[in-house]
Amino acid sequence: MAQIVRLTTKPQRSGQEEAAQAAEQLSLLSEELLKHLPGEARIAISRATYALQKAARPDTTEGLWPGGFTMLSRMQTATIWDAIRELPSDDRPNQVRHAFDLVLLNLRQDTGEVLLTRDQLAERIGCAPKHVSTIMGTLEKMGVIRRERRRIEGLQGRGMAVYFINPHVAWNGSLDVRKAQAAETRPPMQLELLQGGAS
Fold first, then answer.
1. Closest by Cα among 46, 28, 52, 81 to 160
2. Inter-helix orientation angle 10-27/39-56, to 10°
3. Which of 16, 104, 153, 187 gives 38 a disulfide partner, CB atoms 3.0 to 4.6 angstroms apart?
């Protein structure tokens, strides 16, 4: 049986190779160096690396799977949906579910970082930015995501909140990296703890 092959032009191949080389160069930056960079610079490097990886692998952004795909644990996802539905109305279950869906659709490959800022989440969910922290906090208490603080040079305070998906719930990228991350991460906690507003 004949196999259908996607044709790639020479300029496309050249662009993919250049993107792969640039992504590889960025990946060589040491953790020690990154630790001393301003938070905004680290986020910019993270997003640039992700964009270059996508450009280097067009099969993840075109064809049958536009924009790539995210691997999900069906059992964990169903449990999370059920727990969100049972949240009291004061906890904004519809907005928590919307935030969870946005998290799944916007993961950086091979790190699980959520590639949306607080303002972007607020705009897409349709709420005030101040409510995003509460909404994401609910997902964090469930063990669906974890939060890191990245200091931004010149600004006071704890730094910008950056979110990561629990690799036991979903992943976008290398399965080998996902396994390594999952080995260091606890699965989501028993979600019954959140029911009835207890948290």
1. 46
2. 150
3. 153
Query: Residue 175, Cβ neighbours under 10 Å: how many?
Result: 10
Number of H helices, E strands in the chain: 8, 4
* Model confidence, pTM: 0.62
Residue with token string 């969910």: 125
* Element (DSSP H or E) covering residue 100: helix 93-105
For the record, the structure tokens of 26 come out as 């960025």
d(CA 30, CA 28): 6
Closest of 166, 196, 194, 197 to residue 182, by C-alpha: 166
Residue with tokens 């799977």: 65
